[in-house]
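Reviewer comment 2.1 asked that we show a complete input and output for one of the modelled complexes. We chose the iron/sulfur cluster case, as it is the one discussed in the main text.
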Amino acid sequence: MVQVQVERFPYDVVVIGAGGAGLRAAIEAREQGKRTAIVSKSLFGKAHTVMAEGGCAASMGNVNAKDNWQVHFRDTMRGGKFLNNWRMAELHAKEAPDRVWELETYGALFDRTKDGKISQRNFGGHTYPRLAHVGDRTGLEMIRTMQQKIVSLQQEDFEEYGDYEAMLKVFPECTVTELIKDNDRIAGAFAYWRDSGKFILFETPAIVLATGGIGKSFKVTSNSWEYTGDGHALALRAGATLINMEFVQFHPTGMVWPPSVKGILVTEGVRGDGGVLKNSTGERFMFGYIPDVFKGQYAETEQEADGWYNDQDNHRRTPDLLPRDEVARAINTEVKEGRGSPHGGVFLDIASRLPAEEIRRRLPSMYHQFKELADVDITAQPMEVGPTCHYVMGGVEVDPDTASSVVPGLFAAGEVAGGMHGSNRLGGNSLSDLIVFGRRAGLGAAQYLDSLDQRPKISESDVDAAAHRAVAPFDWPSEGQAENPYTIHAELQQSMNDLVGIIRKEEEVQQALDKLAELKERARFVAVEGRREFNPGWHLCLDLRNMLLVSECVAKAALMRTESRGGHTRDDYPAMDNRWRNKLLVCSSDEHGTSAEVVEKPQEPMRSDLLELFELAELEKYFTDEELAQHPGRVAQ
Amino acid sequence: MSYKANFKIWRGDDTSGELHDFIVEVNEGEVVLDIIHRLQATQAPDLAVRWNCKAGKCGSCSAEINGKPRLLCMTRMSVFTEEETVTVTPLRTFPVVRDLVTDVSYNYQKAREVPSFAPPKELGLGEYRMKQQDVERSQEFRKCIECFLCQNTCHVIRDHEENKENFSGPRFLMRVAELEMHPLDTEDRVREAQDEHGLGYCNITKCCTEVCPEHIKITDNALIPMKERVADRKYDPIVWLGNQLFRRGSKR
Ligand code: SF4
Ligand code: SF4
Ligand code: FES
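Response of the prediction step:
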């Protein structure tokens, strides 16, 4: 029988997730005077953000003074093939510099330019050097900085209330399994401590989801075990909607060898700093893969590309730095056509391009990672790399300004939110997304609280039901076969990887959906041994249902979108189709998350002053004639 | 190229526990964490272990392998012979929660006791100017992934529970040094290091430096320079007096 003992904690705002977005949201909520909890599946300071390497995009213009928010906005929209939520892209481009500078006031130490400002590096899809960075460990610096800012706020609270946790408390190694509502609005969250297995209930009118992504549904991924789509699934079950779930970013450069590290990220900074991709014949193949929409923006010869690193005014950038979707597809094609490296990737060569000393200085963790995990000295040999599931562009449909979902009291920021990156995210735009929209979500939640006249109530039957569902995996089925959660997880990963991966076609996605239906049925019989104290088998059972629901959204949306764009490539519909550009695919589910439904919805047309930031000729590559009818360029004709 | 390896893994909780024997498959290129995961998926689904990134970047998977403090995800199986028995035990300096998972909250308490970065009040957003060579010293310390292997190793608290109260350990003494060397921090932390964080307990054995997976020169670059600053203060009566006066007038 279930032991329904539940510890209760009242809070004003509960932030689920302690990565960049979650920490920034919590800092903001606390600074707005709200009692705030941060709930994290891992220990404090371990979130997936620490793995972000390259940098944080913000048009500070420290290295090239021509940079400004308009250029950043344009790059972001191009990277996302104009499917982005333009308001989010606008806010992001405008606010990123202040958010980065703010980190300095928390104690961050970014690499510097000669005149002592924050240094900025080149990255795929960014016109100018734009990424604030610390070697190749920028994400770690951001997490540590915000972690330490939180400690500093707690120290202030200690001075004032004699209790470090009076206003801001971290609940480490604690997993939320359900959101609880009072009629249509948020009233709380049900969770368990990973170490003791005991249950807790957060009584809170406002929840910020900052749970990151869904990569653990795929076999080859750069994501950690935490990335099981929890926030996506919690949102769906609470009645919120997801958009753009068909767009999954495969980072072009993951490690491919040895098998046990397959998928681990190799930062784009390698290419930003001069590394080039080569196939087995030694050819720099990216010159053959510049797509029409980017013709004229990238170098066409090796000589021009090499000149660009030092003189950007007179050279175009190397196609090695095309947006990630383009590079990933190119690598995929090279390998498929038999020009791959021995272990099924291609070569990434920095050894022949920079002195060994310089490589170790600029890319210390890459040097370390290859040395220790693959016995490869990147200052002497090329790396072998191939695509790895890295990021989901899709996520909770939110109001751009407040980060609010359609459910009152439910907010989302960072990877779990959808829209900002359109069909493909530019490297470096994630870390900046976290701090821009993390702050906005914290602010949105605080404002929502101020507008409430009454706190929502939690019904006891909801709490009991959540507790029962949580311990269900300990009840072995009375008849038939119990299922092993690890087996189901492995089958899910294999099928998403093979059938809804980087290149998709109708029959395969359909097969994946059939497989998902089978796995969902079998998952009803998952059972685990042992006790509730730190039991990873049990934890996986609870994460599995999130992965299954979210994978269904990905597959269903991928089946519906009959075109190729950004992180969604259909072998049977290889071209981008302008009629699809302004269509969003919106996912929803019932409260038990038994199945997902996907419907089409038009995007809001872009505000005219933003539209006018682009040349008509470029817009014509993406927009339909009707959409451009009002453009001044057209009106003038 | 795969073979069967002998593993001994400590299983238990805060009351009792013992080493359990396992025979498990090992494939080319694998690390110890891969083997633990294989055990979870096949023989011991409830075997508790902490991990996140599997790339040596998050510092979650600290344990002791054949008695040496290491990251499970960065210890390749190829460093052992096929005949060798690999013994995995939890960190010794911290209380066990279950199996390989320990209660590392000591570290978070100590982190909270280090006064935070004190920004220069007169500088606004975007006005910070620092030279690369001046930030590099603190940057080295900020590479720390908080694996707490150095804390686990330091003899001052390993097997000396009684010292935990007065000693913050190499990780957090290094944090004090990091702030002390931050070009724009406005606080003086020298006396604090000695009096509040137990710098005096450290007798520069360098054991912490040896186990640091980030290869941070904790002893040479953080602890010894801090000790030098403390010594300078002590022997310079004018500086010492000045500090006393300053401290009396300033409230933190
Ligand atoms: S050098 Fe100091 S801090 Fe490091 S292990 Fe030795 S005594 Fe401990
Ligand atoms: S200083 Fe090194 S050993 Fe100590 S916690 Fe940091 S990374 Fe780990
Ligand atoms: S799992 Fe992150 S350091 Fe080992």
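Residues 105-250 of chain B form a domain with the Fumarate Reductase Iron-sulfur Protein; Chain B, domain 2 fold (CATH 1.10.1060.10). We note this here for comparison with the apo prediction described in Section 3.2.
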